[in-house]
Amino acid sequence: MKLDDIRSMYEDTILDHNRNPRNFLRVPQDATHHAHGFNPVCNDEFQVHLRIKDGVIEDVGFNGAGCAISTASASMMTEAIKGKSVDEVRKLFHTMHDLLTRDGALPQGKLAILAGVRQYPIRVKCATLGWHVLNAALERRSETVSTEDEDAAPYCPLPEGGS
User: Fold this and answer.
1) Residue 157 domain-assigned?
2) Where are the beta strands (DSSP E) in 40-101?
3) Distance between CA atoms of 21 and 74, rounded to whole angstroms?
4) How far is it, in rounded angstroms, from Cα 20 to Cα 52?
5) Using CB atoms within 10 A of its CB, is residue 43 exposed (0-12), middle (13-18) or buried (19+)?
6) Quick one: 55 exposed, middle or buried, by C-beta within 10 A (0-12, 13-18, 19+)?
7) pTM of the predicted model, to two decimals?
């Protein structure tokens, strides 16, 4: 695939998820996990709400306000995690964090499009905000997560035997 094709897919996907974010302005009925996050660099701010039953993400929603990249990333995240086990979601968090911050391996499916954010280093924190809020929700942390917090990622332990 040509670089221009990838760039076009990236832009189309970001615009689609920004204009029509999935699971936005939703708090799942009987949500069991919640977290709040803030990116002080550009004032993006989101809350993530999860309903977890028997170790599976049954439902997810998010609300708040952010730039196109942070909104699109959070929207794509909610689609990707629904129906997955908590262990799978933790692995996905690490995959996405590595993809966006360390040039990690591409995940399967639409989430690979977010690798395009690496071309805009100042936007990496925008793209990771929703993922850090998800991580905090999984851990039931009550403090606001900040993209300026270097310790945001290590709170999400990999499952036994995970990589």
Assistant:
1) no
2) 44-53, 56-65
3) 8
4) 25
5) exposed
6) exposed
7) 0.86
In a domain, 152, yes or no: no
Tell me how far apart the alpha carbons of residues 40 and 74 are, in angstroms, rounded to a whole number: 17
CB distance 123 to 15 below 8 Å: no
Cα(8)–Cα(33) distance, rounded to whole angstroms?
36
Q: Which domain holds residue 108?
A: 3-145
Contact indicator for 62, 70 with CB cutoff of 8 Å = no
Q: How many domains does the chain have?
A: 1
Provide the residue-wise pLDDT of the chain in tens; the chain has 163 residues: 555 666 677 788 889 999 999 999 989 889 999 999 999 888 999 999 999 999 999 999 999 999 999 999 999 999 999 999 999 999 999 999 999 888 778 887 889 889 888 888 889 999 999 999 999 999 999 999 998 875 444 334 444 444 3
Q: How far apart are CA 92 and CA 142, in angstroms?
A: 22
Residue 113, in any domain of the structure? yes
In a domain, 153, yes or no: no
- Give residue for tokens 């499009």: 113
> Residue 80 is part of a domain; what is its CATH number?
3.90.1010.10
